[in-house]
Amino acid sequence: MGMHIAIAGNIGSGKTTLTKQLAKHYKWEAHYEDVEDNPYLNDFYEDMHRWSFNLQIYFLNSRFNQVVEIRKAKKTVVQDRTIYEDAFIFAPNLHSMGLMSSRDFENYFSLFNLMTSLIQPPDLLIYLKASVPQLVEHIQSRGRKYENGIRLDYLKKLNERYEAWISSYSLSKLLVIDVDKTNFSKKNEDLSEIINKIDAEIYGLFPVK
């Protein structure tokens, strides 16, 4: 029986990089966030008020389908971003900023509650905690055109919501990685340290070799 490992974190925290590294190390199957083929993302960054609901519904549908496929596959999968982040971080943030109407938000959250009642949470959630300056550095270095307009206050508000969500998260095992204090994308020893922590969470302190 496989496991579902999910990686959560703000924009630019290193989710995709860590997903690739863990998939390679453990020979897990990787499921990535649908960014390149997302038909709403560019429009959303151009006009957040108009496209926020459409974008969140697209992500909700995409991630729900991912989790269904992960559980059907019966092999271990590492997932880049979770269904919970949309509902507890991004959608409420858009709502509080006046970029999603209360009517749309309530409709969205009702759908989220229905969908999550039908699926299992991940076996292990890995949260990549990062400061805003660290996020900005990562975002700038990867140079995605549609991310050029992301504002600092937007990242800060998302970070605050992430911290609040993680502080009360209890659906599964949780591993928090401080991105400001590790450079897993470039330093093998930092990646090895994360892998040791994951081994301890999913296999116990004395894994069977």
As for the CATH topology, it is Rossmann fold
Helix residue percentage? 55-70%
Q: CATH homologous superfamily?
A: P-loop containing nucleotide triphosphate hydrolases
Mean pLDDT: 90
Largest sheet, spatial ordering of strands: 2-3-1-4-5
Strand and helix order? EHEHHEHHEHHEH
Structure explained in plain terms:
The chain has 209 residues and is of the alpha/beta class. The chain has one domain: Rossmann fold (3-Layer(aba) Sandwich). It has eight helices and five strands; from the N terminus they run E-H-E-H-H-E-H-H-E-H-H-E-H. The chain has a five-stranded parallel β-sheet, with helices on both faces. The longest helix has 26 residues. The chain is globular. The relative contact order is 0.19.
List keywords for this structure.
single chain, 209 residues, alpha/beta, Rossmann fold, five-stranded parallel beta sheet, 5 strands, globular
